[in-house]
Specification:
By secondary structure, the chain is of the alpha+beta class. The protein has two domains: 167 residues, no CATH class; 295 residues, 4-Layer Sandwich (Deoxyribonuclease I, Chain A), CATH 3.60.10.10. It has eight helices and 27 strands. The strands form four sheets. Strands 1, 15, 16, 17, 18, 25, 26 and 27 form an eight-stranded mixed sheet that branches. Strands 7-8-9-10-4-3-14-13 form an eight-stranded antiparallel sheet. A hairpin with a 7-residue loop joins strand 17 and strand 18. Helix 6 runs parallel beside helix 7. The chain is elongated, with a radius of gyration of 24 Å. It starts with 10 loop residues before the first strand and ends with a strand.
């Protein structure tokens, strides 16, 4: 099932030209030529040039001197593949012959300080780009993923080309292609994610099969499909005994579009990512003092390399409030973390910052076991990362009604899972957005909010067996829709 939800309004994050991400119309165009070169040890000599030629590059052109542009070059997210994303600010653009709307625009930077880009020309039927120097980010240590896509986005238009087919050279150090026909569509720029702590059920009565895990999993799958089969689904509290059940059921979810990323190093409580795009990197560090984990996956998304992080920080039962004592890691001491959970949030934030080295956005999701305004929340928010739920204008948790809350149900039995009442009393589950370094993203407030927040809407009634459960977990999750340029 494809996403059925369209943005009705946008909450803007990051710098935007007039009109924002929703204003640009996609214009697929033909690529005449592209050349990329890089020599080992000679960073000043690497660079590239390309020419797009198509009658669809047509006036009237927008005022680039007011809105600027964003240039992307995407040859894959694997190590050694080329990804460039750079803003070309309004001040560098000059109208050709003083008639930008009709004749086009030139952008120049003799210092090549913006990713090595020195010259860009937009004129009727033609776009030309040249870049060179140590700031050009493409070292070309590996062959590029085909097709290699080029996108130039300005106010009112997004021209895109895809260099595949007539590839002259594609090897480490060189990529050359020509005569690329216009693609059928420009790269997808929407990102969607849903997150849920699915409840391992290890404290449930033995005869309930982890509080009806199989039935709760079926309900979770219905919620994922109802959300339009997001690009990524991040889950916590996945146990090694339950993982085979979940993995075996994947072909039945969203027509089998998902692959699973699961390390399985913590027997009782691991993270698992369901992804719709190729995975190019995975890492699962252990957090202080050695029980809790995190999971990072990098995806080759059409937008560019997309980093997704998730974690489940310590609960009271495994020492969340235990003082960070003599074995407290130096980074936690420096951040003045006073207990185990606070230290884990410091480590998680540092891990995200260390691994997220690309200009695209990143998403950080999971059960942090702390409410907004806490030390743990500030450890992420104070880095300039956005609590997506709040940014979408959603109301903060009301414990009297359960609206906006994500935790509070009884997790050691079926009483709350089989009741249509919410019984959630706090918001401790999150999706944080790490804004892109180039371009901009906007949160879709229609999609962004609480995930799986109504008693089983897919059945006439819910409750004790043989009826379906009312909730897939003791938690409600979070979801985000993101539109980027």
């Amino acid at each position: 099932m494809r996403s059925r939800l369209a943005a009705l309004a946008l909450v803007v994050l990051g710098s935007l030209g007039p009109g924002g991400p929703a204003a640009a119309a996609d214009v697929p165009v033909a690529g005449r030529l592209i050349r990329l070169e890089a020599r080992p040890g000679k960073v000043e000599e690497r660079g590239g040039r390309f020419v797009l030629r198509d009658s669809a590059i047509a006036p009237p052109f927008p005022d680039l001197g007011a809105g600027g542009a964003t240039l992307r070059l995407h040859g894959g997210a694997e190590p050694g593949q080329c990804y460039l994303a750079v803003d070309l600010p309004a001040g560098g653009w000059r109208p050709i012959d003083g008639k930008g709307a009709r004749r086009g625009w030139r952008w120049g930077d003799p210092s090549r300080s913006r990713a090595g880009v020195g010259r860009v020309v937009v004129r009727p039927g033609r776009i030309f780009v040249s870049a060179r120097g140590a700031d050009f980010p493409c070292a070309l240590e590996a062959a590029q993923r085909e097709p290699l896509t080029v996108t130039l986005e300005v106010e009112g238009a997004r021209w895109c080309a895809a260099f595949g087919g007539d590839i002259l050279v594609n090897e480490p150090g060189r990529f050359r292609a020509r005569r690329a026909p216009a693609p059928t569509a420009c790269p997808v720029r929407r990102v969607t994610l849903a997150d849920l702590n699915i409840l391992h059920g290890i404290f449930c009565p033995t005869d309930t099969n982890q509080c009806r895990f199989g039935s709760r999993l079926e309900l979770l799958f219905r919620w994922i499909e109802d959300a339009g089969c997001p690009d990524v689904v991040t889950l916590q509290e996945v146990t090694l005994p339950q993982a085979p059940t979940l993995l075996d059921a994947l072909p039945s979810l969203c027509a089998g579009v998902y692959e699973a990323v699961y390390v399985g190093q913590n027997f009782f409580d691991d993270e698992l990512h369901l992804v719709r795009h190729p995975v190019t990197a995975v890492e699962a560090p252990t957090l202080y003092p050695g029980f809790r984990t995190a999971l990072w996956t990098r995806l080759d998304h059409p937008l560019g390399p997309l980093d997704v992080f998730s974690t489940h920080l310590a609960a009271t039962g495994d020492g969340a409030q235990r003082g960070c004592g003599r074995d407290c890691p130096p980074e936690c001491v420096a951040a003045e973390a006073s207990n185990t959970r606070q230290c884990q949030s410091v480590q998680m934030a540092a891990f995200v910052a260390a691994r997220h080295d690309v200009p695209t956005p990143a998403l950080v999701a999971g059960d942090l076991n702390e409410p907004p305004g806490s030390f743990v929340w500030h450890e992420l928010a104070d880095r300039g990362w956005t609590d997506a739920y709040l940014a979408a204008g959603r109301p903060e948790c009301d414990p009297l009604t359960g609206v906006g809350c994500s935790s509070g149900r009884f997790d050691a039995g079926l009483s709350d899972l089989e009741s249509p009442e919410s019984r959630e009393v706090e918001r401790i589950d999150y999706v944080f957005l790490v804004p892109p370094a180039a371009g901009s993203c906007a949160i879709d407030p229609e999609f962004t909010g609480v995930f799986a927040d109504h008693p089983n809407p897919f059945a006439a009634a819910c409750g004790p067996a043989p009826g379906p459960p009312c909730w897939p977990s003791d938690h409600e999750g979070m979801q985000i829709g993101l539109d980027c340029r």
